[in-house]
Amino acid sequence: MKQPPPDTQTILRHWREAVPNDRLAHLVKDATRSLVRALQMRLAEHGVSFGHWTFLRILWEGDGITQRELSEQAGVMEPTTFSALKAMERLGYIRRKQRGGDRKKVYVTLTPKGRDLRKRLVPLAEAVNSIAVRDVRTADIATTRNVLLSIIENLARDESVADLRMPSTRELSPHKAARRAPGARKRARKP
Fold it and tell me: Inter-axis angle of helices 67-74 and 50-61, to 10 degrees?
């Protein structure tokens, strides 16, 4: 079996020898980084960034949603989504259009080129997942899935964790939202 790269060996040694009982959050973060890095390398061979992959996956499942909905589902702030979508539009993956009289709602739809990427890119993600769980028993994979889903559910139930995605300005605390409300600057300047 091929040896892992030196940086991976360092991470594995850290977890197995230095801090075998460290917090699970750190281990999940390192595992996520490894999965993301493996997929990023494969996507780069097709000229697709990992950030675009996130939005493409959502659109492949629900094409024609608003830019705001896409941002919420991706768990990123709207300015980040806007920048990514501008680039994806230049690459010919998506189109953005306003519908009806609501000028604030911008709908995002895949182009044929964006839809066709699914056939090439999804197998790359499936390959990364297969590699990641190679030599792991099926029962252990099922247990890991159940544990991770329980973690998500437990944290979502925690009163101090209102939502797992980044808050939009509508979801900020009342104090912060008041500072961003229309006319807030005028009110703040009055003595």
Answer: 110
